[in-house]
Amino acid sequence: MRTEASRRTALCAAFAAGLLIATFPASSRAAEPHRLALQISDDDLVKMRAVLDVAANVSRHYSGQGEDVEIVVVAFNGGLDMLLDDRSPVKERLLNFLKSMPNVSFVACGNTLETLAAKEGTRPPLIEGISVTQVGVAALMNLAEKNWTIVRP
């Protein structure tokens, strides 16, 4: 009888430990914010609007569930025009994002900026609040390697 009781105790203990192990990773993941990187590489107003729509929708979705989400928009090649102060076709909306959505940030590719500066004779001004990374695609790769979700709307 003692052996049967010992087995039951051991099984219960193993089950409880397994339950803790199975639930602990899920609860630790829930504490982590969701992370989304959006790529814009085309000088296309429809795609620029789509990027902003996705950022707004995802932010609204998770905040409505009481969960945190970090969103970064990485612009390179033709998509960089979205972040340029003198020509962004979505400048007003982007400024509203910068003012009202602190969980959404925008990053410009330094290589694309240098290419434009060489072509135009001067570096085009970025909208205030935009950060710069040297290589936009490398920034996306680094985020992917840190388990960010990368989307190109």
UniProtKB/TrEMBL annotation:
Keyword terms: Signal
Domain of life: Bacteria
InterPro entries xrefs: DsrEFH-like
Keyword Signal listed: yes
Keyword Lipid biosynthesis recorded: no
Signal sequence interval, chain numbering: 1-30
Protein known as: Sulfur reduction protein DsrE
Species annotation: Bradyrhizobium guangdongense
Organism taxonomic ancestry: Bacteria, Pseudomonadati, Pseudomonadota, Alphaproteobacteria, Hyphomicrobiales
